[in-house]
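Trying the structure run again after the queue cleared.
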Amino acid sequence: MSGDDNILSVQNLRVSFRLDKQTIVEALKGVSFDIPRNSTVALVGESGSGKSVSSLAILGLLPKENALVAPESKILYQGRDLLRTPQSELRRLRGRDFAMIFQEPMSSLNPVFTVGKQIGEVLRLHKGMNARQAKARTIELLDEVGIPEPQRRYDAYPFQLSGGQQQRVMIAMAIACEPKLLIADEPTTALDVTIQKQIIDLVGALQKRRGLSVLWITHDLAVVGEIADRVIVMRHGVVRESGDAKEVFAHPKDDYTCALIQCRPPLDRRPRRLPVIDDYLNGACLPAAEEMHRGTSASDETVLEVRGLCKYFVSHEGLFGKRIMRAVNNVSFAMPRGKTVGLVGESGSGKSTVGLTIMRLHQADGGEVLFRGKNLLELSPHAQMEYKRHIQIIFQNPYASLNPRFVVGDILTEPMRLHGIGVNEAEREKMAAALLDRVGLPVMSLRKYPHEFSGGQRQRIAIARALTLKPEVLICDESVSALDVSVQAQVLNLLQDLQDEFHMSYLFISHDLAVIKYFSDRVVVMNGGEIVETADPDEIYRNPKQPYTQRLLASIPRGLTTP
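Done. Tokens:
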């Protein structure tokens, strides 16, 4: 492909970061790739592979205080090297020629300004529009990206919009000045499958209609197969494989690419163990693993039963008005011992509220949660302490759920201390070390703080903390949703091993339907705070009865062809 066919060319990009006077970490080690005109290129890899650093280098947003770019590196755009372009010129290019959609819109949108004001600011700055022109154009952009009632949403604040609508606002802001290159950094990672599909379709339509070039950064190869023309696979700052997307997925040449493809839970089978990266890097793609049966039967013992659970939230409108939102309305299901119940639905469906209400982190407004014949919702705080030992929860975000001021040893021993487990601190520390070993972390981790671990390692610590009390029921609230596919596979394998060993029951809450199908024995589908369908996983995927369930299943990314 000639240089004229490319809108941007990255050549031998080497980037290092100075952590202190003695320590320099090399993030990119000679990365080269091209972005053809009017096409979508996907940059794929795990966290720490260098994907986002590459995009920040293109935009000239690397931190000046500690980022070091090698002198031989080049990023060529229309005959100029962006690495040697003055910041004043780069500021003119950003927004006008380049635009970026970030992963987390609530962190990127200013919470004190309306969305109309934020998009209008881009138009006034780069297009020289006056306030009236900017407002009219902003409403047109909101309509183009599919925001309902764009004139009314013009005056809305970010917190008044759903996650999918916030991401659409970010896209409207990015395309406001009709850029030639759009960079999308993990724009769908934390979104429901239905919203994810809408964003993928929207960007694809904009790309074709406007003739955009798109650099799509992600760790989810199933999404890449839906949208990309070409794919670049990165690991540890090195390009491991690149080429036509369909060809790379159908016939991966690099073991790491093969590993990424196979780590994702497949929809057409259920291997007993998901392969992980280390299974592949020293050899060719492995043969299919032994299949595992999932499902429930009438003879299964019930360990926990939810009957008619209700949870309402009241919001005040105006001076005297109020609105009651039925977050959970008459929800009932049973959890068999040693089995997994998958609770699935879009954001706002009420699935997380169910888990939090079972734990009494929300106060229920009706219903029963029966465990060993006791209604947990009626217990006094003192009586509830005994039952907390038997029902534990793992939250989605291990960054927020682990106390940053405690070392891991304190995080693990504190629940034991509160519940009188262990005769002394030495015994509790020994038990904590054994738990760390059980979740695959070295004993030296006891003396480290949470910030010294990766996201996957933190989630393992959160699992170890939940196991300190040897629970019978474990609630997993989106606990693998934000993890790389390889780390996700490791955590799912670990949870399966623990279930096999301790015969625990899981309430597995997720919006990822591929994971739900793989890991669940029973699937409960929620919408608008109510259960709309319940069935065994294979049956619900083979023959969904409700239109809502059918729409969820139709939104699963299916662009990945496994070898």
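Residues 188 and 199 are 7 Å apart (CA to CA). Worth checking whether this holds up in the mutant runs.
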